[in-house]
Amino acid sequence: MADDAETTEVSFDRATTQLDALHRAAYATADLITVDITASDDRYVCKLFPRASGADLELLAHRMRSEVIDQTLRLRIAKETEPLRNLIFALAFSQTGLAEAEAPQP
Questions:
Q1: Backbone angles phi, psi at 12, to 5 degrees
Q2: How many helices (H) and strands (E) does the chain have?
Q3: Are 45 and 9 in contact (CB under 8 A)?
Q4: Domain at 4-94, CATH from 3.30.70.580, 3.90.180.10, 3.40.50.300, 3.30.70.60
Q5: pLDDT tens-digit readout, 81-92
Q6: What is the Cα–Cα distance from 17 to 22, expressed in whole angstroms?
Q7: Residues ≥6 apart with Cβ < 8 Å to 27
Q8: DSSP strands (E only) in the chain
Q9: pTM for the full model?
Q10: How many CA atoms lie within 13 Å of 43's alpha carbon, on the beta-carbon side?
């Protein structure tokens, strides 16, 4: 594990960044860094631990910020398209015979 001289921190506003996006970003960058996420009053603080000795900490911080933005947008798109995806799945499964058709109402 790297010592504190080989770490850096990035922080995110809790009002605009979901914890799930931070977890996903940490996972996506796990080949380069491990991440310790803590919450303060209005911020999430991510302490980045590079896997390689002598890594460019500024570059790793930029990579983490970029990945958090990507994951935040993915979560937003998933939320906004959920009703449409559910409709498509319902239609697809209704035509397979896997879902029982509703009995007609008299």
A1: -135, 145
A2: 2, 3
A3: yes
A4: 3.30.70.60
A5: 998 988 998 888
A6: 8
A7: none
A8: 8-13, 33-39, 43-50
A9: 0.77
A10: 7
